Amino acid sequence: MADKVEFELVSPEKLLVSQPVQMVVVPGAEGFFGVLAGHAPMIVTVKPGIIDIYADDMATISKRLFVAGGFCEVTATRVTILADEATELDVILGLDRAVLEKQAADLTEDLADAKTEVERTAVEAKLAIVQAKLELQGATLH
Fold it and tell me: Helix, strand or coil for residue 135?
């Protein structure tokens, strides 16, 4: 087990993943980063994107999940992600693109109408989630 790291992904609704893995790749605010056993401790903001889980070997992704943001705590033996929202990638790919595009357009208008920095920040966060979902639908995923 020394070559694996314990991985937990928690959303407000439930514990989605709790298992030992070879590696997990996380969409951090400063860019994607991979975590292996023995990683240096850190706490990172997670941006909307895909988490890739490599359970048994580092050549094959065993699971991909979409997260809408959150926080990630890394230690030498554990990776814990507290996600604002997390779902199976197939659910995102199955969403109606026209509905997502309408949400993005509405949020862009809301952003232009935002009166305060707090309002602007809240709308930007929602828009980033919708844009990430649209990007996923447009991308070719393995």
Answer: helix
Between CA 78 and CA 21 the distance in angstroms is 10
Helices 97-113 and 117-138 pack at an angle, to 10 degrees, of 160
Would you list the domain boundaries of the chain?
5-89, 95-138
User: For residue 31, is it left (φ>0), alpha (ψ between -120 and 50) or beta?
Assistant: left
Q: How far apart are CA 111 and CA 136, in angstroms?
A: 22
Cut 0.70: pTM above it: yes
From the list 31, 99, 93, the residue with the least C-alpha distance to 64 is: 93
Structural class in CATH, domain 5-89? mainly beta
Contact 30, 16 (CB under 8 A): no
Q: pLDDT tens digits for 42-85?
A: 999 999 999 999 998 878 888 999 999 999 999 999 999 999 99
